[in-house]
Structures are given as C-alpha cells and as structure tokens.
What we know:
The chain is mainly beta. It contains four helices and 41 strands.
Amino acid sequence: MVLSLLMVLSLIPATVFAADDSDEVTYAAFSGTTYWDTLQEAVNDKISDIYLAKDVTENFEIPAGKTVNLSLYGHQLHGGITNNGNLTIDKYKQYYSHPDIGGGDATITNNGTLKLACDGATGFSVVNKGTLNITTGATYDLDKITNDGGNIEISGGSFNNAPSAEWLRVGYIAKQQSNGTYKVTAMSDADAIALGFVARTNLGSTRYYKTVQEAIDSNQSTVNLITDVTEDCVKTTGDISLFCVNNSTFTGSLKCSGNITVQNGTVVLNDVECKSFTAKSPSWNNSTNVVIKDGNVEKVTVEKQAYNGIDVSIEGGTYSGDIVVNGDGTLVIKGGTFTTADPTQYLAEGCTYDESTGTVKSSYVAKIGEVGYDSLDAAIAAVKNGETIVLSAGEYKLNGSLTYNDKAFTIKANNNAAVSF
C-alpha cells in the first residue's frame, strides 16, 4: 500500500509521526510525502531515496537496474537484502536534523554494486559477489564481510582488523589507531616512501609506483618523484614530464621519442635523448637544478617562472637545435657539441667554443670542484685530503707515484674523456 499525504511544509520534520492519531508508526519507510508499508514496496516504486520510518525486520530484493539510496534515519534494519542493482547506505542521504545514525544486523547478499558509507552500516553482514565499496563508517567487523568472487574497494572507514591490501583502493593505507582499530586513509608521500614507493600521480586520485619507469609506462601526464632515485628510463612513444616533489633528486637517464620537461628539485642526467628538452622553475618558492652530462637533444629551453631559481648545466652531449633561455634563468655550458646554435654567451669560465666543429671544451687540464688548473701537477699540489681531481682528455705523466704526504685524493676522467698515463 502506498499512502500519499499533502503537507503544508515542504521540509521533512525531524521526527516521523504515525499516519493516524496514535504514537505508533505503521509504515516502514517514506520519501518526502510518500509512505510505504514495506521496504519491498518502496524499492518497487520509482523513487530512489528511501528513509526508514521505524525499526524494520524484512527480507527484500533490489532488482537489476534499480538504484536505491537508503537512509536508516535513526532506526534499526534487520532481515536480509538481496541486491542485484545499485544500493547505497550513505549518511549524506540522511536528514541532518535527525540525531541518531541507526544501525542493525541485516545480511546483505550483494550481486550488484553496494556502497557502505555511514556508521550505521557497520553492523551489517555482507556476502559480496558483485562490487562492494566502503568509503566511511566506524567500526566494521571484517568477520562479517565475505568476498565470494566479487570486487572490494575500501577508501575509508575504520575496521576491527587490518583489511587485506587487495581490498584497499590504490593509493590508500590502513593505519592502526591507539584503540587498536585500523583506519583507512589516503596515503601520504611519507607513507608511500616507507612502503618502497618512489613516484606518484598528481594529488587527488593518487596512485603510487615502485619505479619511475612504472609511472612513465602508466602514461600519466606528469610523473611526480617523491624521493631520491637513481634509474634509467625510456618511453618509446610520447613525452616525459618529471616533477621532483619536496626537492627530491633524480639521477640517471631519460629517453623518449617526444619532448622531456623537468621541474623542481635536482635532475642529474647521465644521458638524455629527446626532441625538445625543457627545464622549468617551480611555481612556488623552490628551485630547479639540472645537470646534463651526455645525450642527443634538438632544442633546449630554460624557463624561469616568477621569482624561483633555475640553474642548468650542460657538460656534454650533442645538440642540433636552438637554445632558448626565458627570463633570467641560468644556463652554463661546460661541454658538448652544438651543430646549430651558438653557445658562446652561455660558456662556463675556462671553456672555449670551436666554431668549425661546434664543440665546447674546457681550456683547463684539470679541475677540483669548480676551480681549474693548467696542469695535473698544479692540481695535485692544490688538492686537499678526500678531494677529487677531474681531468680533461689527454695523456699525462705522473711524478713517481700517487702517494703524497698527509693527503689521499682521487683522479678521474671528465665524463667520457679519453685519459691515459
């Protein structure tokens, strides 16, 4: 039976009264000014939003294709629900004026899509054969949730035990609370790093990755590096955009068929291959530092935004296109071959450009840090304990041995320079 009443007020009152003059509610559910004697009648109607009017014990079924948003409205629901459609038990479907969340111990057999999103739903037992989404609610008893070949995704709520990792939404984690329960929340970067993740998508619908290559392969528009990483990455088709979160450092190689953009933090590229390489300063008060040691690139762009710093150093590689520096970004060229652009204005101190070959090289024989020396002997005389002498290509003679009183140091070749003694 469906009983429709005309009401003077358009808003539903905080208390549901009986249809007659008694204090006892005779109908099971309502929506606006429509009342139903049973929940099955409510489900069979065209209305989607259904509110319990009293404690109900009933077995009812939601057919395939039917959407039901059920509010307990402060009442208890017992019995059994067979859901073949789309059922949501959600606190946001409850009138805010009602002080009680309700509850019950109904058993739900879910063959369709079921969403549990309120404290009142935590007492229900669920046999899931379809799709179960749990987004909020305290506290669920996992012993009452059985997955029978369906899919479960948990993105919120608290639980008496830690949910299976397979049930957690990607990018979410279950953290044990002081009372022993487990609360499911979105992972923070710190959580992800502790679990061995190194990169993620943009915030929002966040997904974390164990390698930068995995993130690149997912075809995200931007790979956000969340911790220091050394890795060699390749994308056979398309572009690579790398953002170093929290001033993290990427060391390794990046290769793709399209364009590469790097921003924020530190990027040290032992090898880079792309059409266009762009280094951008961040849009807030951080800096971008890029070192390119080798590679094959057409156009290079250094782009400074607002008041944030950007420093790019090219130490080697082949560059066949333009060099563009926007704003007052810093580009220093210490080596490499430039077949089109003239790099003269960007040369580091002590470096020269040979127009006939397009090659930039250092006029210094050796360097310690950023200080150049005209001979190996001069560098050895100046080197301090624990420092490294970097040699340019050439053949060198050593005076006796590499043992010197009161100091130990390292001699190595610059990048791929050919050095012999």
